[in-house]
Design a protein that fits this description.
Helix content: over 70%
Radius of gyration: 24 Å
Distance between the termini: 20 Å
Strand order of the largest sheet: 1-2
Order of helices and strands: HHHHHHHHHHHHHHHHHHHEEHHH
Number of helices: 22
Amino acid sequence: MAGDQVHVLSALDGAKTQWYHFTAIVVAGMGFFTDAYDLFCISLVTKLIGRVYYTVPGSPHPGSLPPTVAAAVNGVAFVGTLSGQLFFGWLGDKVGRKSVYGMTLLLMIICSVASGLSFSHTPTTVMATLCFFRFWLGFGIGGDYPLSATIMSEYANKRTRGAFIAAVFAMQGFGILAGGAVAIGVTALFKNRSPAPPYAVNPAASTPAQADYVWRIVLMLGALPAALTFYWRMKMPETARYTALIAKNAERAAADMSKVLQVEITKEQAGDLEVAHKSPASPSFGLFSGEFVRRHGLHLVGTASTWLLLDVAYYSQNLFQKDIFSAIGWIPPAASMSALDELYHIARAQTLIALCGTVPGYWFTVAFIHSVGRFKIQAMGFFMMTGFMLGLAVPYDYWTGQGHQAGFVAMYALTFFFANFGPNATTFIVPAEIYPARLRATEPNGAKAYFERLRATCHGISAASGKVGAIIGSFGFLYLAQSPDPAKTAHGYLPGIGVRNSLFVLAGCSLMGFMLTFLVPEPKGKSLEEMSRETEPDKC
């Protein structure tokens, strides 16, 4: 590529949108559908699990998960996700995207089913088994992040790349929506077959024995969409950029892309790829070199830090919206409902938020990412999230007053809209576009050259930083949002700073994300090689 654009990459960047592009969106997107379903459905059923396993006979309040158990059940999957993003991001660069892609999906299928089969004799062992399988579920989910983004960016053409990656990620919205809808459907079915009185009327009868099956069914159904797409994921060829640039099999890359994208690339044209990347103009530096820091160091700080800050706010709000809605009185007091009634109300509330705020936000990004650009969408999203969170926090006493809950819920939904028509989408998209597929490095003694594979690795690092934020949000908000009045805290919890002050903290995270967005470049309209500066000579 010294001087002229390489034929294979030029053909990929200029290829017309093909049916295979949409097939790839669905196949990769169903992974994200499953990811979102599995990560967020747990927040729907934690209160039900608490009633089933931790109700104390004679207590005036329904059972709830102890603080440490609640933190583990909600957060352990994110610990697994963080580990999976780093491991599979590295492995995808090492052995190929396709080789690892099916592995992550199979792990998700097995662990989704196993999570619902967490049977034992005591609550402690049930929760321990559940947490074990949710860790490995998260590990598989973590692999899906860097691989799906990298695969879609390397398949797509320059003109539609951002929208295609955004469309893959937008399937998360449908996964969140499906989680709520499944919970509503399963709960309604069991309510009709096993009606139960409110806890205040008959504590023992308010949680029928069948309730123990409900949460298990909800968790296990997360395996279904992944299983339906496993065959098609295994049929996807390796991306041309990986096959030609890293595996050094340009003939195979040409054959694969000619078949699936209907672009004519001859063996001779494909061979130019290897010649160009063996030229002296190829960058000669490694991941931990000063040259990488000069070219991409601030970019990596920007993509990692903004993803971290976004996930602190986003996962805090998503996982604990049921607690926020209970605090403002939008969901009735737990004692006034049976166990299945409570799950039904929680699922209905979260489904409404997903339908009105989360899903539209994702698809606004798909629609406007090429006309507006990644940078502007991310900056606007962080700014609007800050504004709406302050709009909830400053007049918090007004919103919690009788008759004002609808306004609070509407503004709360808008924070989700601008998170998804904003940084929740762009923090996923940009790392797949701005980092090189490989770098040419030399041994310390200068004896031989070799190639480091980076795109999936750098995306994995950025995504793992995001999951650090999710862990902070899932563990921290659980405690911070507790009332500062000891008499009003949930059973087993220490006093916190309250929902109002927690919203101020989340607004601060969003404001910091807005400022750090200025470290992230705009990839709009540029090829992957232009953005990653793979063809730029080093300054050694």
